[in-house]
Amino acid sequence: MIFRVMMLGCLLAVAHRAVSATEIYRTAAQPESAPKYTQMADGRIGGFCVELFRLLERQEPALRIQGDQRFVPLKRLEKQVRFGQLDFICGVGDNPDRRNHFLYLQPPIFTVRYHLAVRSDDPVEIRQWDDVRALGEEGIILINHGSGAIERLQALQGLIIDSGGISSAANYDKLLMKRGRFVYYRSPGFEADLLRHHLSGQIRILPTAMETIPFYILFYQHTSPARLALFANALQRLADSSELADLAKRYP
């Protein structure tokens, strides 16, 4: 798969160029996206990405990240980064449209598995996409509006997708009302989301991982090489020291 990736090797050539004493990078938290972002009991926003930001700031004292205490829906977040109103998005998967509008930093920050879930009283078992296709109109897949998985599943062809639900809670309601056969979501995150909505007894996650997808940090396409290098080098050092992998293990 070929897409636009800003590799660390390319960045090293510009790493010597001067940056200001403190470089501010703007982002926002994504709602309905645990474990990337979670609402804490004290009202603060925590989660994998917030912890990653603090590690990056510790790794590179000239780097500061702002905006992680403000929720912005994914579609709006992508638009704001695409047009330079924000600098980056933390933790999203690849799809064809994103390749045209963002710079992907390497390495990926973690890997997710996408699963189908059904009502607990539904005996269906799915091992591959052909099993879903064979269900025809009885195999509607509910996906959160704006999810990067939509384009990937559309590219597979033959699947019936309903992406009208604006949140996972909306899609769980549609599933329980039999307005779809499956909900498609990622793990880590799926199990905790069902627990949060008190639905573990009513919805079951099917065991087959239908996709395994690396999640990246995506940057504004016209970010200056020096700013990109500062951030990317800090991320690479976290990966080299195993701190990035250790953080991912805390969010199984």
Index terms:
elongated, D-Maltodextrin-Binding Protein, domain 2, two-stranded parallel sheet, 10 helices, 252 residues, 2 domains, nine-stranded mixed beta sheet, alpha/beta, 33% helix
Report on this model:
- The structure is a single chain.
- The two termini are 27 Å apart.
- The strands form 3 sheets. Strands 1, 6, 7, 8, 9, 10, 11, 12 and 13 form a 9-stranded mixed beta sheet that branches. Strands 2-5 form a two-stranded parallel ribbon. Strands 3-4 form a two-stranded antiparallel ribbon.
- The chain has helices at residues 8-12, 48-59, 74-82, 96-101, 129-133, 149-156, 168-176, 190-196, 225-240, 243-249; strands at residues 5-6, 23-26, 38-39, 45-46, 63-66, 88-92, 102-105, 110-119, 141-142, 161-162, 182-187, 203-205, 211-220.
- The longest helix has 16 residues, at 225-240.
- The chain is of the alpha/beta class and 252 residues long.
- It has 2 domains: 23-111 and 214-250, Periplasmic binding protein-like II (D-Maltodextrin-Binding Protein, domain 2); 112-212, Periplasmic binding protein-like II (D-Maltodextrin-Binding Protein, domain 2, 3-Layer(aba) Sandwich), CATH 3.40.190.10.
- It contains 10 helices and 13 strands.
- The radius of gyration is 19 Å and the shape is elongated.
Describe the secondary structure blueprint for this structure.
Elements: E1 5-6, H1 8-12, E2 23-26, E3 38-39, E4 45-46, H2 48-59, E5 63-66, H3 74-82, E6 88-92, H4 96-101, E7 102-105, E8 110-119, H5 129-133, E9 141-142, H6 149-156, E10 161-162, H7 168-176, E11 182-187, H8 190-196, E12 203-205, E13 211-220, H9 225-240, H10 243-249
Parallel strand pairs: 1-7, 2-5, 9-10, 9-11
Antiparallel strand pairs: 3-4, 6-13, 7-13, 8-11, 8-12, 8-13
Helix pairs in contact: 2-9, 2-10
